[in-house]
Amino acid sequence: MSGPPKAQLNQSLIDGIATLQELALSSDPIGCRALARRLNMDPTRVNRLLQTLEHIGIARKTAKRKYAP
């Protein structure tokens, strides 16, 4: 039982990647509440993740306040 310690998981990173994956799989732009329902996450958390993805240039917000990759 003496091996390297297991990596500590970062839930924020996991949630961000899941959000990005679901956004990329969506055929049309999607709103944060619909995305939150798909991911079974809190809409406020998904909104913050989407805003972060938009800030770094991975997602964009449409004129109808929906998001696309």
TrEMBL record:
| InterPro entries referenced in this protein's UniProt entry, alphabetically | Tscrpt_reg_IclR_N, WH-like_DNA-bd_sf, WH_DNA-bd_sf
Q: What range(s) does the HTH iclR-type domain occupy? A: 25-61
- Record-linked Gene3D superfamilies: Winged helix-like DNA-binding domain superfamily/Winged helix DNA-binding domain
Q: Which domain of life is it from?
A: Bacteria
State a single Pfam family of this protein: HTH_IclR
Report what the protein is called. Answer: Helix-turn-helix domain-containing protein
What's the source species for this entry?
A: Paraglaciecola aquimarina
- Write the lineage as a comma-separated list: Bacteria, Pseudomonadati, Pseudomonadota, Gammaproteobacteria, Alteromonadales
